[in-house]
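Take a minute with the sequence and fold tokens given here and flag any structure token that looks odd. Thanks in advance.
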Amino acid sequence: MTPQSPPESEHYRRLRDVFERAPAFMATLRGPEHLFEMTNPSYQDLIGHRNAVGLPVAEALPEVVGQGFIDLLDRVFASGEPFVGSEVPVQLRRGSGGTLEERVLNFVYQPVPEPDGSVGGIFVHGVDVTELVRAREQLQAQARELEAQRRALESANALLDAFFQAAPVAA
């Protein structure tokens, strides 16, 4: 005897709950215009709580058009091949009328197939790694500064050694 699966609506409810609670940003896009179907709260945080659902990406997020993201979506939609971005900088307006802010993202544009095998949409999943990247860059800058200080001290020690080796020894 095999256990019965919950009704399809229960699967959808559970999936929707996971989508809404996920700490990663997620969105579903439909069609070659890349219309937003759904966005989760993390995606809404990323884009400054703009109302994107029902709009094409180019209209909902006009600042990304000139940054190559629409071209990437077009390529994923046409090819059926996912795009994985690692530490990709993006300028986003994080609120209506707000100034552009650079964020750094790890993300995937995953094509969503239709029953006939064609691409019907794209699933967007990612993580904002801006703070991680900034912290790493700050640590790298501090490491470079410490290395420069170490070299300066090494040079100063070499000069002192040379000075004391050349100085006459008092008897």
Strands lie at 25-30, 35-39, 83-93, 100-113, 119-128. The chain has five helices and five strands. The chain has a mean pLDDT of 87.
